[in-house]
Amino acid sequence: MHNLTSVQGQFFILVKFLIKRVISSRVSGLKTYVGKNLLFYMLDETPAKDWNPDNLLALVQQSLDILVAMMESSDSEDVCMRHFFLRDARVFLKRDHDSKSRIVAAVRQSADNLLSDLKPFTESLPKFSVNVILLSFLSYYILSVELLECSDFSFTKHVSTMNTATELCLSIRSEAPVGSRSGRLTQLLLDVERQIPDTAQVGKAYIRAAALFKMGQLVTPELEGDPAGASLAIFGVRG
């Protein structure tokens, strides 16, 4: 479980949420342990290249289809699925569960309506605006400290760079829609990046990350190896 990729971890969280909060609110019978078994079946059957953010919902839907198929493959009213680790064993439904046909129907309902069923989950997540404000504060602080430690960076250059960084961070924190200001944000980011020396790469990466997110550019696979992309990932901001 500790070696899961970020997408595999997200998959597991979503499947557990659907079983515990959505399907179980409609019918009684599924144990949360079912989610762990589904995870390992999916890890066993899904090529590594398919574990990417674009496929996340399709993978969740596929796992629910597997669950339906396993429930329907057994004539026993109490059997839910085959145990992943003990293939001769079975995972059973809860005691006093609803009819298996009702449980199957509830799982199918979630598989067919993933976006609406996952809406309560997405609404419970912290709002991105909080993340970007925290990131802009942190980036400003790190940049200031790094510039002070640059022995060959003059006081005049320090003041000029921090003035531009201040304007950029204030623009990032603004509640105003970004559409009409994206050009200004881009220019400010380019200006401050040109002024930051190579010895202040961490602050540069963080301030770039905050600006990119404010402009709606989330972390993409191309940014995964980039310091700015790593900064966004730390704050839970991903594409």
TrEMBL record:
Residues 20-107 form the Mab-21-like HhH/H2TH-like domain. Pfam families: Mab-21_C. InterPro entries: Mab-21_HhH/H2TH-like (IPR046906). This is Mab-21-like HhH/H2TH-like domain-containing protein. The lineage of its organism: Eukaryota, Metazoa, Spiralia, Lophotrochozoa, Platyhelminthes.
